[in-house]
Please model this.
Amino acid sequence: MLRRGRTSRSFVDGEFRLLYAENVIEIKVKTVAMTSIGRHDNDFRSLLTEAIRDALAATTADSIDSIFLASFAPAELCGIADPASVARDAVRAVAPGVDAPVFGPFRTGGEALYRALERARTANGDVLVAGCEKMTHLDAGTAAGLLAPRVSDDVEQQHGATLPALAALATAAYAHSFRVPVRAFDEVAVKNHHNATLNPLAHFRRAVSADEVRRSPLVADPLRRYHCAPMSDGAAACVLSRREGAVRIAGWGHGVDAMRFHDRAHLGEFKAAAAAASAAFAMAGRSPSDVDVVEIHDAFSPFELMNLEAMRFFAPGDAWRALARGELAIGGRVAVNPSGGLKGRGHPIGVCGLTSTAEVVAQLTGAAGGRQHPGAGVAVIQSAGGVAPDAYVFVMEACA
Amino acid sequence: MRRGVAHGLDGWRCERGHVHVHPHEACPRCGGRLRGTRIAPQATLLVQTIVRVTPSGGPFRLGVAVTRAGHAHTLCRVEGDVRGTGHDAVMLERRGNVIVARRRRGARR
Model:
C-alpha cells in the first residue's frame, strides 16, 4: 500500500529520500530469524548457517540478489579472516543455487541493515542481511583485550580507557548535567531483566532486584556489573524485499559524533543518536509520540535513558521519571526494550541491530507472546557501537 | 611568551584558533591545518571515574579536563585530592603519552 501526502524535508540521502517519501519505493522485512542468544557450543559458521536457514525457510532463496554480513570482530575473536566467504558458504549450504555477492562484514547489524536498504531500493531481487558473533569461548579479559583496538583510539588506549570506563564518564557527565540519580540506572537493568524472562531466546532469563544491581561489583564508578551487557553468542538474519512483507521500514537515519570521547562538545549527550533519529523520523513522517515500541542500544543501562532523550522521546533528564512511573514497561506509554535489550536478551556485538529487528517484527505482527505490547503499530530501532561515535535509527511500521 | 605557557603542554592549534592536546591529522572541529603550540596547563576537570576492572590490574582514576586557554578537551589520569564532579581546578602535565591532572596549588577543595 502506498502512503500519501508525506514529503520529507530531509535530504540526508539526497534524491532517494524524496522518492521514498513520495511513495515511489517501499522496502519491507519479508522474513526474519534469530538463534537463541547466550553461550553456544556451535561455532561461528554453524550459528550463521542456522539463522540464514531459518530466514530463508519462508521465502524463495533464488530471489536473493545480495548478502550483507554483520560481525564486529570475526578475525580477532574466531580467527576468521574472510567472513564474507563463510557467509556465502552458509547461504549455499541452505540454497545451493544462490550466487549472490557478499558485502561486509559491517561492524553492527544496524550498519549492515542501513547499507542493505540502499541496495534494496535498486536490487533485482531480495536482499539478505545476516549477522553472527561468537565470543563466549574466550574469557572476558582476553576478549576485552582483543576488542580494545576496535572500540577506542590510540589516545584512549594510552590512558588505559576501557569501554566501560568511557561509558562511566559519559554516565557521570549525564547524571551530573541533568541531576539524574544513580538508582534510576538500577531500575533500567531491573526492567530489562524482567522483560528478558518473557523472551525464550534471551541470554538471561532471570529477574534481578534493584538491590542486587546495587550490590553488584563496581566496574567503573557509577557503573556496576549489572549495568553492563554481557558477552554473548548468537546470529540473526532477515530478508528485505520491495514486494512483500508484513513490516515496512518507513525511515532510517545515520548520525556521527567524535570518535574520541573527550573531543565531544557535550560528554553526557549522544549527538549521533539525535541526528540519526531526526533523519529517520523525518523520512518516515513520524514523531516519537507515534511510537509504541523501541529497541535501544543499552550496552550500559544508562545508555537507554540517554538514547531515549537524544531521540526526543523525553526532554533531557526526564526519561528516568517516566521509567519510575512505569511508562517504559510493556503495556506502558512506550515499551522500551521488550526483548530484554542488550542487558537481558544478550549482546552478540555485531548482530545487535538484527536481533532488534527480529523483536520489532514480532511486536508489529503480534507474535511476541508474553511480552507483546498491546496495539504495537510503529516501532523504532536504535543501533550503535562503543560509546556511540555513530548510530543508526530505523522506523518500522506494521503494513495494513 | 605568555606567562605560564613556558611550562605548559605541547599542543596543536589550527588557523582558526582551535586548540588540541593530542595530535590529529587535521583539526577535528574545522578541518584546518594544525601546527605545534604550547598550551597553559591550567585546566578544569569536568568529570572523573574510578576504573576498578582493568586489564592492567589495580584501579585508577580517569577523567576529562578542559584547558582554560583554548578550551581544549583531553582525557587524563587523575591524581591527588580531586573530586571531579564539581569542576575542580587542576594542572595538567604530560608524562610520555599520558596526560595527568593534579589539583591546582591554592585551589579551593
